Amino acid sequence: MDTASLKKEYATRIAPALKSQFGYKSSMQVPVLEKIVINQGLGQAVADKKIIETAINELTTITGQKAVATLSKKDISNFKLRKKMPIGVRVTLRREKMYEFMERFIRVALPRIRDFKGIDSKFDGRGNYTVGIEEQIIFPEINIDSITKLLGMNITFVTSAKTDEEGYALLKEFGLPFKNIKK
């Protein structure tokens, strides 16, 4: 599979379609996908330190880029949490790896979700979109036999779009399977 096929598709088909749809005067006004941020919040890591290492290894395997631990910002005694304790894992993908991950996510991972009927079309108000995945096993890179705990993740698509409508149109053109209802 050609890793830059989504990138080529953006340049040849998606950008011109968006330019005519929204009436942009310059091709620099057409929204682009800037980065994809994959984040796992692991509150249970307070009790079990191995969860962080496992999550880093799994996220690195899924994305092809080294994942890093995120640290807590303050002490919260009710959760037995101390400042600077690792409580999550994240990775930021840009350029070629971003397009390669997006293609695998759309074509391989999403269809593996049980009873999949499309993803909600709820944006953040600035043209960015976050989808929550409940299980990491939808990615074919993960060996199901080696899983000790099902971990969910948030995948955020950060675009240069100014409005939700533009961001929706961009991601829909890339092939994200949104449910038919639009707000």
Verbal overview:
With 183 residues, the protein is α+β, with helices and mostly antiparallel strands. It is built from four helices and five strands; from the N terminus they run αβαββαββα. α1 (5-22) packs across α4. The chain starts with a helix and ends in a 9-residue tail after the last helix. The protein has a five-stranded antiparallel β-sheet.
Q: Which residue ranges are poorly predicted, with pLDDT under 50 across at least 5 consecutive positions? A: none
Q: Structural class, from helix and strand content?
A: alpha+beta
What composes the largest sheet? 5 strands, antiparallel
* Element order: H for helix, E for strand: HEHEEHEEH
Number of strands: 5
Strand order of the largest sheet: 2-3-1-5-4
Overall 3D form: globular
Mean pLDDT: 75
Number of helices: 4
Summarize this, please?
By secondary structure, the chain is an alpha+beta fold.
Overview features:
183 residues; 5-stranded antiparallel beta sheet; 4 helices; globular
Topology (elements, then pairings):
Blueprint: H1 5-22, E1 33-41, H2 50-63, E2 68-71, E3 86-93, H3 95-109, E4 129-133, E5 153-159, H4 164-174
Antiparallel strand pairs: 1-3, 1-5, 2-3, 4-5
Helix pairs in contact: 1-4
